[in-house]
Design goal:
- By secondary structure, the chain is an alpha+beta fold.
- The protein is built from 10 helices and 6 strands; from the N terminus they run ααααααβααββαβαββ.
- The protein has a 6-stranded mixed beta sheet, sandwiched between helices.
- β4, α10 and β5 form a beta-alpha-beta unit.
- α3 crosses α4 and α7 packs across α8.
- The radius of gyration is 32 Å and the shape is elongated.
């Protein structure tokens, strides 16, 4: 700017080269190279300060490499870049004339860059917490607290991969509340939501840690049972149905459910299992509701057995 003291153009030229290189091929640079841009920036700022006469305020430019390194490389990067600033600025003050060099200038710079790095780390931590919560909400049914369809598909893919690798059985059970529309019409949608929440809580209580329970939508629920055979899956559905039908202590209407079960050994596709379980569920609905229908495996007829009505 007009009236500024003479300064070296070398740091400005290097910065322009780096900016152009980043714009052209920055996404292909190895991560260590991106890290060393921070210390390089500190070195360029220090050089500019050391070669510019007078006690100027150019030390504010240290904020740029501090922000870069702290944002992209976290706490360790922040510690490293603040240390670089401390060493770099100390060298600058030693090279400057005594009239422009005093301890307070070093303290001012270090307090400032430490504050910048701490604020950035705090904000990044808050952002990570927010992103984690948003990812969780994207996979969770807010009404019941169970997984939604997206969350179920992700967890189910992992469990099916384990079952396929280990050659073990896995079961899918689907539940649908009987006459749920009647509950909404007679008791109201708020009560219907409470009923759905109660069913979700019951499924969560009945499941093991490895089981995957989800609400697929409306009044339909699904539970994936790793390592469970046909008898175990039928026992699980019967336990859920009997608990719901016997729960008359609350002020909510009594709920009965129909269930469909499908089991397979080392299955390849969860969608196929869901379709077979849904077919069994629809058969339970057509057969009078409040019952469990089982589809044992792809080697058996799709509807192998129908449990007695409880």
């Amino acid at each position: 700017m007009p009236g500024d003291p003479k300064y070296s153009l070398l740091p400005v030229a290097l910065v322009l080269v780096i900016v152009i290189a980043l714009a052209v091929a920055g996404t292909r640079w190895p991560r260590p190279a991106l890290f060393f841009l921070g210390p390089l920036g500190v070195a360029l700022v220090s050089y500019a300060l050391a070669t510019t006469p007078g006690a100027g305020d150019g030390a504010v430019l240290y904020a740029m490499p501090v922000l870069w390194t702290t944002v992209f490389f976290g706490r360790r990067g922040a510690i490293a870049i603040v240390a670089c600033v401390g060493v770099g600025h100390l060298v600058v003050l030693l090279l400057l004339p005594a009239s422009s060099s005093y301890p307070g200038r070093w303290v001012d710079v270090m307090v400032s860059v430490c504050a910048i790095s701490l604020v950035v780390l705090f904000l990044e931590h808050r952002n990570q917490l927010l992103l984690t919560r948003l990812r969780g909400e994207a996979r969770t049914d807010l009404l019941t607290g169970l997984l939604n369809r997206r969350g179920f598909d992700e967890r189910a893919a992992i469990e099916l991969a384990h079952a396929k690798r280990e050659g073990r059985s896995i079961a899918v059970t689907t539940f649908d509340l009987d006459h749920f529309k009647h509950i909404n019409d007679e008791w109201g949608h708020q009560t219907g939501d409470l009923v759905l929440a109660r069913v979700g809580a019951l499924l969560a209580d009945e499941c093991r840690d490895v089981d995957v329970a989800a609400r697929l939508g409306g009044e339909e629920f699904v539970v994936l049972l790793p390592g469970v055979d046909c008898a175990g899956a039928e026992a699980f559905t019967q336990r859920v149905r009997q608990t719901l039908s016997a729960d008359d202590a609350s002020e909510l209407p009594t709920v009965r459910v129909s269930a469909g079960v499908h089991t397979a050994v080392a299955p390849a596709d969860v969608q196929v299992m869901l379709e077979r379980a849904d077919t069994a569920l629809y058969e339970a609905k057509r057969g009078g509701r409040d019952r469990t229908v089982t589809s044992r495996s792809s080697n058996h007829p799709p509807l192998a057995s129908v449990s007695a009505k409880s």
